[in-house]
Write a structure and sequence with these properties.
mainly beta
């Protein structure tokens, strides 16, 4: 990766009651990552171009820009903040050292595979004041409104990146990442209008209570009202208990509603070209997809805090229930026999729907209801070493468990049953939801500052994760053991406004466990993409920053 960024943060007092501010930034990142090696004898190779096989690369150019500007001040007893924020992100794909097998010896080896874009503009007005209600403490009132505009685009790649060439019997599109076709191209927008009120009051010097409500309307998903109640009680000096209960609403993102692409997925160690079909397309509907609904949630938490001199500590337990959670379906693949599932011919069905040469399909769905329970524990301690500087120690531990609570009620659409016995949301996706992420994470950080010198040491433990195969054979399921990763950085401040730093992420070059040979596509796919810390090993960097 090559990464460059610039940020701005400033304010300007207009008069005693009004000030203007602006902040924002721009970053550019160029990346290059390898796919999996195509052997010389692989049906996806053209020996005339790559007599020894080839390793394709996905190259990306990411441009990210955001800026906010606003005014804040006071009128009478009210304090206000009016702002406008705009942000945009583009992700351009290029496939190199590759080929389109269907073009055979005439195939290019580099491809413009298309671009993803997202833009968002948000207008916010927040107003605050303290209201005397005849009690010892005033009632703090906050009200506000928001208008948001979102736009999502998919730009098609060059023809050779997605099309069939001379041979429709060979895989079409650039190997490792077929480009976005004109049928994938999208330009979708929506708006959202919201308003909130937040009331906070100290019932006594020790007890704080807060109540909030929010109403919003999406142009594509209608209206909703959510609320929150929270409280905090100071049991003793420095020690308090707290709790909160709230409801949540999340409309499907534009990407979840409209993303469309063909990608190579490894299933049981075998590569399949899988199409992700937006739920509003004829293909997705033919597979049994229905319009996405918004996710709704109930969130409960209770905890305690302790803050005394150089020591602070907090511990919270929580539960989050999500209804109609948006997830991917299983990959409905073309196979003679997949474990206990019966023979299918999905590719023929897809070809009849106008998608020849595709080995399987999937889509987003509101298939599951989940319950997540967990605990967050955080502790911080600062040590003043006098003339030798300052040392800050931080420990953060998380335990999380997610369960699907409606497994027995998940229904596979009849349209899907007619072409495959693979269920809508089977063992692979269920395992991804329940055991596919670490159930525990430990994070320990030490920061040492001495004059202009800064030293950071951090070690993180990721708990184990489990993957299962669509083939119902426990021998092929795999649990990847927990791993510790350690990072370090040394920085130095020059002339007050300049900082230079060098650092190493994953000092000890830790890798996840290797994939079982039976699932590794003859040893090509050595590591699982489900690893919570990837499989790139040690990462060394240098950075410089300037404050103007």
């Amino acid at each position: 990766m090559n990464d460059a960024s610039i940020f701005l943060n400033g304010d300007y007092p207009i008069n005693d009651n009004i000030s203007a501010y602006i902040f924002g930034g721009y970053s550019h990142r160029a990346g290059k990552s390898a796919g999996f090696y195509r052997l010389a004898s692989d049906s996806r190779n053209v020996p005339a171009i790559y007599p020894n096989g080839f390793l394709p690369f996905i190259e990306t150019d990411i441009n990210d820009f955001s800026a906010s500007a606003g005014v804040k001040g006071s009128v009478s007893d009210w304090t206000y903040d009016l702002s406008e924020t705009y942000g945009t992100n583009s992700l351009a794909y290029r496939v190199t050292n590759s080929l389109n097998t269907s073009y055979w010896a005439k195939s290019p080896t580099d491809f413009d595979a298309g671009t993803l874009k997202f833009g968002q503009a948000t207008t916010n007005l927040d107003i605050f004041r303290a209201v005397d209600i005849g009690r010892e403490f005033p009632l703090d009132v906050a009200v506000g409104g928001e208008f948001r505009y979102e736009n999502y685009q998919i730009l098609a790649g060059e023809v050779a990146s997605y099309a069939f060439g001379d041979s429709t019997k060979k895989a079409k599109g650039a190997q490792v990442f077929p480009g976005f076709a004109p049928a994938d191209a999208k330009d979708k927008s929506r708006t959202n209008v919201g308003a909130y009120i937040d009331l906070e009051h100290k019932l006594s010097n020790l007890w704080l209570v807060s109540v909030a409500g929010r109403a919003e309307n999406y142009s594509d998903f209608g209206s909703t009202v959510t609320g929150k109640f929270s409280t905090r009680y100071d049991v003793a000096y420095g020690f308090a208990v707290r709790g909160a209960a709230s409801t949540g609403f999340r409309a499907p993102s534009l990407a979840q509603s409209y993303f469309s692409a063909v990608s190579t997925n490894f299933i049981g160690g075998v590569p399949y070209d899988i199409i992700t079909a937006p739920v509003n397309t004829s293909l997705a509907k033919a597979l049994g997809a229905s319009k996405l609904k918004a996710e709704k949630s109930v969130n409960l938490s209770v905890g305690l805090t302790y803050d005394w001199e150089n020591l602070s500590f907090s511990a919270d337990v929580y539960r989050i229930d999500i209804t109609d959670r948006i997830v991917f379906t299983e990959n409905f693949i073309d196979s003679a026999k997949v474990g206990t599932y019966q023979p299918t011919n999905v590719s023929k069905f897809l070809a009849n729907q106008g998608f020849p040469g595709i080995g399987g399909g999937r889509f987003f769905t509101n298939a599951v209801n989940t319950k997540t329970q967990g605990m967050d524990i955080t502790g911080r301690y600062g040590i003043d070493l006098s003339d030798l500087g300052k040392l800050r120690l931080t420990a953060a531990i998380n335990f999380t468990k997610t369960e699907i609570i409606n497994k027995d009620d998940i229904q596979t659409p009849e349209a899907l049953k007619a072409i495959t016995s693979i269920p809508l949301f089977g063992r692979v996706q269920q395992a991804l939801t329940e055991v596919g992420q670490p159930r525990s994470t430990y994070n320990f950080i030490a920061n040492y500052d001495y004059n202009d010198l800064g030293v950071l040491l951090r070690t993180v433990r990721y708990g184990d994760v489990t993957t299962v195969q669509i083939i119902s054979d426990p021998v092929r399921d795999q649990t990847y053991s927990a791993k510790w990763l350690t990072d370090a950085e040394v920085s130095y401040r020059l002339l007050k406004n300049y900082v230079v730093a060098v650092g190493v992420d994953n000092i000890f070059d830790v890798y996840p466990d290797k994939v079982l040979k039976i699932n590794s596509n003859n040893g090509i796919q050595q590591y699982s993409g489900q690893s919570p810390f990837g499989f790139n090993g040690r990462f060394v960097y240098a950075r410089a920053s300037v404050k103007i």
